[in-house]
Design goal:
By secondary structure, the chain is mostly beta strands. The chain has four helices and twelve strands, in the order H-E-E-E-E-E-E-E-E-E-H-H-E-E-H-E. A hairpin with a 2-residue loop joins strand 8 and strand 9.
Amino acid sequence: MLSTKHQWVAALVAGSVATPLWAADRDWLTIEGDYLIGASVVSGNGHVGDAPVSRDFKPMWAFQLGPFRVSRSRAASLMQAGREKLETGVSADFGIFEDWRASVSLRVDNGRDFGDDPRYAGLPDVRSTLRWRVSTGFSFGDNWSWSSSYDRDFLGRNGGSRLSAGLNYRYPINEMRYWDLGVGTTWGDRTYLQTTYGITPQTAAATGRAPYRLGSGLENLRLGAQYTHVLSDHWVLFGGLDLSRMVSAPAGSPLVGRKTTHTLSAGIAFRGKR
């Protein structure tokens, strides 16, 4: 039920990245490539609406200049063969202490478009917007990490704000292959949850539906398993499965057609240096 608008802001900034990065260490498990291009096949469904499982071919890219990065899809997490969980969109990363890192980013939120589906006739679409996000992460032990982020509608289009947190465990098979296993949750404020899952009294009166009002609270619980296989200095194979379960008030929304959804993906990417 999501629209397919291009992430024009990311593409515009990506076009300005032209300075190469050089590193003495040639181990692609620990250094950042200057750029990454790739593609993936994604199969999944969404919580809102009743659309069938979709299968899409998605290009991906990432460009790096010092602490600044422009990326699309999962490309950012593959810049270091998935060794760090990096931001999608326009972002900058900063080290705080030895095991802490922080980043700021600007991302496109594609909103929601019901199209001509008669089951949702009269319900307003959710406009696309930009969201700024501040993230932090902490590594402990050899394979465990924790991350959290706060994002907010940058353009004032009733997108509200969200707070996410997650715990990740890396299961290494060998130096070139590993799994990332994660669990997380998202909390949304009243504006975000009402815009995404609610029906205002005005819309209810116009469409003959019952109103549905939400306050702030938890939105979902998530489980994920992501696989990364470094084929060579330049090529990376990846795939994974993500599960999401709606909880609390959003789970009871009449707009939610599925309380549990999945996303299955697989792809390949090339990393290089200009």
